[in-house]
Amino acid sequence: MRTQNIFLIFEILIMISFIQLVNSEPEQLHITGGICSTYDNITANGTYHDNIFSLLSKLTSRSTQTRFTNFSIGTGSNRVNGLYLCRSDISLDTCGACVNTSTDFLLTLCNTKKEAIVWYEECMLRYSNRSIFATEETTPARWYFGYLNVSQPEVFSGLLNRTMEGLIVQAALPSNTLRFATGKANYTAFEGLYGMVQCTPDITGLECWDCLTTALGMIPTCCGGVSVFTTVALPSCQLMYDTAPFIIAPPPTTLSSSPSPAPSPLPID
Ligand SMILES: *[C@@H]1O[C@H](CO)[C@@H](O)[C@H](O)[C@H]1NC(C)=O
Ligand SMILES: *[C@@H]1O[C@H](CO)[C@@H](O)[C@H](O)[C@H]1NC(C)=O
Ligand SMILES: *[C@@H]1O[C@H](CO)[C@@H](O)[C@H](O)[C@H]1NC(C)=O
Ligand SMILES: *[C@@H]1O[C@H](CO)[C@@H](O)[C@H](O)[C@H]1NC(C)=O
Ligand SMILES: *[C@@H]1O[C@H](CO)[C@@H](O)[C@H](O)[C@H]1NC(C)=O
Ligand SMILES: *[C@@H]1O[C@H](CO)[C@@H](O)[C@H](O)[C@H]1NC(C)=O
Ligand SMILES: *[C@@H]1O[C@H](CO)[C@@H](O)[C@H](O)[C@H]1NC(C)=O
Ligand SMILES: *[C@@H]1O[C@H](CO)[C@@H](O)[C@H](O)[C@H]1NC(C)=O
C-alpha cells in the first residue's frame, strides 16, 4: 500500500510539472542522437560547405513559421538537400529553438561531413547530397530509453503493441496530412501509457505505416521492450511512449498553425 501511495505522489508531481511545461515556452529540448556520414570529407571552405551553411540558416529561419520544410541549394555535385520536422504538438517557438539548436549541433559535430542528421524529441534536422525528399528511409536509427522497467512486463508489452499499432494506423490514414497521432491507454491503476508517432508529411501513408512499424519492431531489441519510456528515431519517422504524460497539446490543424489550447489535466487513472 505504501508503494502505491508513493506512486500516487509521483504521478501528482509529474502532473504539476506537466502543467508547468504547458505554460512556459519554449521548453527544454531533449536530444535522442545524431550521426554524421563518415565517407568523403568535404573541404571546410568549399562551395558544398558554404551551401550547407546557407541551407541550415534558411531552414532555421523558416522553423518559427512552420513545422516542416524541405529546401535545396546549389547545383551539380555541390547540391545540398535538407529538411526539418518538428513535433506537431509543440509551439512554433519551441520548433524554432529546436531547429536552431540542431543547426548548431550539426555545424559543430558534422562540420566537414557530406551528410548528417540529428534528432531531438522535439524536432529532427538533416541534410544530404542525395535526394531525400518524399522518400521513406528507415536507417540509420537512434533511440533513448529509461533505465527503470515497468511493473508488469507481459501485460505492458501487449498493451504497448496494441496502442502503438492503433496510433500507427491513425498516422497513416490518407486524411492525416500531419502524419501525427497521440493517444493514451490505461496501464495500471497508477500508470498510463502515453504514445506519440510521427512521420515526415512528404511520405505516403503506406510508407509512414512501414517506417513506424519498423520503429515499433525495434523496441524489444534496441530498448529492452519494457522500459518506462522509449524513443525510437528514424530519418522518416519517430515513435515515443512513456508511462508519464509528455504530450504537450493536441495537434494543430496545419503545420503552421498553433497547437490547440493546452488540454485540461488528464485524470489519474
Ligand atoms: C574523413 O575524416 C576522418 C577523421 O576526420 C578520417 O578518419 C577519415 O578517414 C576521412 N575519410 C576520408 C575518405 O578521407
Ligand atoms: C581554404 O582553407 C585552406 C586550409 O584550411 C586554406 O589554405 C585556404 O586558403 C582556404 N581558401 C579560402 C578561399 O579561404
Ligand atoms: C520539397 O519536396 C518536394 C517533393 O516532396 C519537391 O517537389 C519540392 O520541390 C521540394 N521543395 C524544395 C524547396 O526543394
Ligand atoms: C539561435 O542560436 C544562436 C546561438 O547559437 C542564438 O544567438 C540565436 O539567438 C538563436 N536564435 C533563436 C531564434 O533562438
Ligand atoms: C553524394 O556523395 C557521395 C559520396 O561522395 C557520392 O558517392 C554520391 O554519388 C553523391 N550523390 C549525389 C546524388 O551527388
Ligand atoms: C510486441 O511486439 C514485439 C515486436 O514485434 C514482439 O517481440 C512482442 O512479442 C510483442 N508482444 C506481445 C505481448 O505480443
Ligand atoms: C481509462 O480509465 C478511465 C477512468 O477509469 C476511463 O474513463 C477511460 O475510458 C479509460 N481509457 C481507456 C482507453 O480505456
Ligand atoms: C529491464 O528489462 C531488461 C529486459 O528485460 C533487462 O535487460 C534489464 O536488466 C532491466 N533493467 C532493470 C533496471 O531492471
Describe the structure.
With 269 residues, the protein is an alpha+beta fold. It is built from five helices and ten strands. The chain has helices at 2-23, 47-62, 92-109, 153-172, 205-223; strands at 31-36, 68-73, 80-86, 116-120, 123-128, 142-145, 180-186, 192-199, 229-233, 237-242. The strands form two sheets. It has a five-stranded antiparallel beta sheet, covered by helices on one side. A five-stranded antiparallel beta sheet has the order 6-9-10-8-7, covered by helices on one side. A hairpin with a 3-residue loop joins strand 9 and strand 10. Helix 4 (153-172) packs antiparallel against helix 5 (205-223). The radius of gyration is 19 Å and the shape is globular. The protein binds 2-acetamido-2-deoxy-beta-D-glucopyranose (8 copies). One 2-acetamido-2-deoxy-beta-D-glucopyranose binds at residues 39-41. One 2-acetamido-2-deoxy-beta-D-glucopyranose is lined by residues 185-186, 269.
Question: Could you give a quick summary of the protein structure above?
Answer:
With 269 residues, the protein is α+β, with helices and mostly antiparallel strands.
Keywords:
disordered C terminus, alpha+beta, single chain, 5 helices, 269 residues, binds 2-acetamido-2-deoxy-beta-D-glucopyranose, five-stranded antiparallel beta sheet
Radius of gyration equals 19 Å
Number of strands: 10
- Low-pLDDT parts are 1-25, 264-269
Helix-residue proportion: 25-40%
Ends distance? 16 Å
Strands side by side in the biggest sheet = 1-4-5-3-2
Assembly of the depicted chains: single chain
SS strand fraction = 15-25%
Q: What are the bound molecules?
A: 2-acetamido-2-deoxy-beta-D-glucopyranose
Structural class of the helix and strand makeup? alpha+beta
Main β-sheet description: 5 strands, antiparallel
